Prior knowledge:
Largest sheet: 6 strands, mixed
Strand order of the largest sheet: 10-13-7-8-11-12
CATH class of the largest domain: Alpha Beta
Order of helices and strands: EEHEHEEHHEHEEHEEEEEHEEH
Number of strands: 15
Radius of gyration: 24 Å
Amino acid sequence: MRVSPGVGWGAQFGLKLENGEALAAFRKMAGCPHIDPQAIHFHLGTNLQNAHLYQSALAHVFELLQAIQSDLGLHLRYLDLGGGFGVPTVRALENRESKLNTFFYKPYRPPCVEEIKPVSRIIDDLVATFQALCLRFRIDPPALLFEPGRSLTSNAEILLTRVGDLKTTAHGFPIALLDAGINIARPLTFEYHEIFVANRMAAPANQRCGLAGPICTPMDFFLKSKKLPLLQAGDLLAIMDAGAYFTSFANDFSLPRPAIVMALDGSHRLIRKKESYDDLIRLDDYR
């Protein structure tokens, strides 16, 4: 059963603990011979950078575990803490700094790597809390499950996009128009991702520049200001940490999705072809 522990994400994620609906659901399942409850699951957020939220959620969930073990005689096999483990090179953008970037062209600050705990240390903290709660509530320890998607895939993918043209705003601020739009790079609008000029890696980043995509909508604007080398048409930008979750969020709005190439040990191969117009209409039936 998925539950909402009352911290982190929760509005649409599971049965609530504080109003008793999660316990009521377990009580109903315990009386049904065709259902065998095995696990509790919760999901608290994304790119979490320490164990604090998980530890708070565990304290609430163990109260439920104690109730279903003592009152209903249920001994669950699994406790799934969901995903959300962060990476040190990506962070959520705050509303205030987004406004400063939009209206005053102030570049976003990079994440502070030293402030972010490695996943291994977060796991150690969680296991220590879990063991202490098992003793405190006298719970038969279920197996802990995790879903560390972002921390596994984030740096496994890089998005390469080419500068097609350069423009200036009415105030003379430069904008680079890219061949990648929000249909494949939407996380850039709400997360910090580092960007390099891949064909000129040694060039100093000494100019502020806006980055926009090719889609015909004012929403296709990634950043109003980013410190980069002086860009030229044809430059290739490398957008880092695209493994979470550029490909998963990608869609074919206005433009087909790009190819994906796997690079390993000095070799490479195409693992997904670029979409064609035929791909966009393959499922349509005009008869």
